[in-house]
Amino acid sequence: MNKRKLLLNLTLLFLLVFLVGSVYQRPFNERIIIIEQGMNTKEIAYLLKEDQLISSPYLFMAYAALKDDAGKLRPGCYDLNTNMGWGGMLEKISRGDTYGVKVTIPEGFNSWQIANLLANRRLVNKNVFLRLVREKDLEGYLYPATYAVVPGARAEEIVQMMVEKFNNVFGDDLLKRSQKLNMTQRQVLTLASLIEREAKLEGEKPEISAVFHNRLQKKWLLESCATVQYALGKNKQTLSYNDLKIRSPYNTYIHPGLPPGPICNPSSSSIKAALYPASSDKLFFIAEGDGTHKFSKYYREHLQEKSRLHKKS
Predict the structure, then answer these.
(1) Region 109-134: what's the mean pLDDT?
(2) Cα–Cα–Cα angle for 67, 73, 75, nearest 5°?
(3) Are 208 and 276 contacting, i.e. CB atoms less than 8 angstroms apart?
(4) I need a surface site. Which of 79, 90, 171, 248 has the fewest CB within 10 A?
């Protein structure tokens, strides 16, 4: 009889806990909470209590056990509120539905521009971010995409997230193509960064790539204005002759071959253009001013195009 009573009492207790967790709501409250790696259900329950999202850690733990969610709670940053109820909070945490500030890194941004963008959103210390990129030589590997950045994330974590995205994009198929062209991944990425900054239209990227490939084969100077802008540390609309003489290993007007590394963080289409240039014998291109370029095989043709554009302006 005592055993039956005990069983009945436990059943009623579990039922009460379940009903409390499902029905009872505190006054509306919303919090961003961070569940650290390795935190157990008890620590999470007390965190929720401290942020006034639940009233009783012990009842919450019992509720989690009844829902069979106690061992499934994932670390991360979560946006929770009391209107969700205990079940909604548990479901969100067990699903790993984390909260993050969405930030888009535009294609062709260099590390300085990315650092400024993230700093303006108060997500990183600009100097710390740039120091990390310089120390690990990661210009070009910060893949341009939209990211959900957890508030309070360390600069190292944000950098790692971007690099991991790049590694997913630059897969085995692209590595094999790099080897076929006798180019290292870094060389491909460097060339892709030049294409990214020179091209305004997606359709012209393979054509611009062909010009650079042809120049490299002939051991000509690449003469990319984008590399001079990187060396200057600013994007000037018009470069002067003095700008073209700047002493920098990135200045492809005075140093042959590719620059020492990428000058920006290129998109997938620019990387593919670097690996798959158009079949073309062109050696020159000049911007028309409307986003398009005029391509030429011979220098005299190129000079004629420059003269035409000069008269037009």
Answers:
(1) 96
(2) 165
(3) no
(4) 171
Is the pLDDT confidence value at 266 over 70? yes
168, two tokens: 């997913």
For 2-95, CATH gives 3.30.1490.480
Q: What's the token pair of residue 191?
A: 């060339």
Q: Which string of b and e fits 32-46 if b means at least 16 CB within 10 Å?
A: ebbbeeebebeebbb
Q: What are phi and psi of 81, to 5 degrees?
A: -145, 160
Partner residues linked to 102 by β-bridges: 148
What was the pLDDT predicted at 22? 47
Q: Which helix (H) or strand (E) is 78 found in, with range?
A: strand 76-81
Helix (H, G, I), strand (E, B) or coil at 295: strand
Residues in the chain: 313
Q: Cα–Cα distance between 175 and 102 in angstroms, integer?
A: 30
Is the CB of residue 275 less than 8 Å from the CB of residue 172? no
So what's the pLDDT on residue 55?
84
Cα 121 to Cα 248: distance, rounded to the nearest angstrom: 32
* Cβ within 8 Å of residue 273, ≥6 positions away: 192, 195, 199, 205, 206, 208, 209
Nearest to 141 by CA among 112, 118, 164, 116: 164
At CA 307, angle to CA 200 and CA 304, rounded to 5? Answer: 90
Q: In whole angstroms, how large is the CA radius of gyration of the chain?
A: 29
Decide if pLDDT at 26 tops 80: no
Helix/strand/coil for 4: helix
| Fold of the CATH domain 101-169 | Dna Ligase; domain 1 (3.30.1490)
Torsion angles phi and psi, residue 103, rounded to 5? -140, 130
Domain ranges of the chain: 2-95, 101-169, 172-312
